């Protein structure tokens, strides 16, 4: 695209990109590919309120609504894309779009959401300047807001280091977690030495760690 990956961590890059590209774009995977996992960890029948961070102009949230989710809030640092998405989905009350920096979500009250979904935002932040500090801010902000019940953080970080033998690796069912031991060898045992994959991290809160329960 004629730019370095470092630009992915800068707000100006996204404003420029969304000003010139109006069509929807999904990083890594589209909603239908991830629907089994989303349905598993965020059941529709409990009517969850979901936050999608770094939404961009992705059709992912639109896919969730079409799949039966009724309350999906989307945030992005780019005012350009937020205004465009507000206009595009003005007739869809299930979808809300707010301009916001994921490193400061103080506008939301504690317990506002049942789940948080990130599809590429953490990756973008890790590409920018002061990446470690900014990534830490993002993760602390997500956790400090004390989103209740379930937190799902999906960061699909591409690993395209193919082995000499090609990309023929065992197919792993999406809803079957891959166990990880201390040195990560179990992932290699299941997927091969250099798997051509995206990584999905599902994080849930341990209720036993709450201060009031410790007391």
Overview of this protein structure:
Residues 51-130 form the Methyltransferase type domain. It comes from Salix dunnii. This protein is α/β, with parallel strands linked by helices. It has a single domain, classed as Rossmann fold. The protein has helices at 11-20, 31-41, 60-66, 79-88, 121-127, 131-144, 185-191, 211-214; strands at residues 50-53, 72-76, 95-99, 115-118. It has a 4-stranded parallel beta sheet, with helices on one face. Helix 4 (79-88) links the parallel strand 2 (72-76) and strand 3 (95-99). The protein is globular.
Distance between the termini: 54 Å
User: How many beta-strand runs?
Assistant: 4
The biggest beta sheet is recorded as: 4 strands, parallel
Strand content: 5-15%
CATH topology: the name is: Rossmann fold
The CATH homology group name: Vaccinia Virus protein VP39
Q: From N to C, what is the helix and strand string?
A: HHEHEHEEHHHH
CATH architecture: 3-Layer(aba) Sandwich
Mean pLDDT metric: 81
In order across it, which strands form the biggest sheet?
3-2-1-4
Q: How many structural domains?
A: 1
User: So how many helices?
Assistant: 8
Estimated radius of gyration: 18 Å
GO molecular function: S-adenosylmethionine-dependent methyltransferase activity
Protein name: Methyltransferase type 11 domain-containing protein
Family: Belongs to the methyltransferase superfamily.
Organism: Salix dunnii
């Amino acid at each position: 695209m004629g730019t370095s990956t470092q630009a992915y961590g800068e707000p100006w890059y996204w404003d420029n990109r969304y000003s010139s590209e109006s069509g929807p774009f999904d990083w890594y995977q589209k909603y239908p590919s991830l629907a089994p996992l989303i349905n598993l960890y965020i059941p529709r029948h409990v009517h969850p309120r979901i936050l999608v961070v770094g939404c961009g102009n992705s059709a992912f949230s639109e896919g969730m609504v079409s799949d039966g989710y009724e309350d999906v809030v989307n945030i992005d640092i780019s005012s350009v894309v937020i205004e465009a998405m507000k206009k595009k989905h003005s007739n869809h009350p299930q979808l809300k779009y707010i301009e916001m920096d994921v490193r400061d979500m103080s506008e939301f009250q504690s317990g506002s959401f049942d789940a948080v979904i990130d599809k590429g935002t953490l990756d973008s932040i890790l590409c920018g300047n002061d990446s470690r500090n900014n990534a830490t801010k993002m993760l602390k902000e997500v956790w400090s807001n004390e989103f209740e019940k379930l937190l799902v953080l999906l960061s699909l970080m591409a690993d395209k280091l193919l082995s000499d033998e090609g990309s023929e690796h065992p197919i792993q069912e999406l809803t079957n977690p891959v166990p990880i031991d201390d040195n990560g060898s179990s992932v290699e045992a299941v997927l091969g030495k250099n798997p051509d994959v995206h990584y999905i991290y599902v994080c849930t809160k341990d209720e036993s760690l709450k201060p009031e329960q410790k007391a």
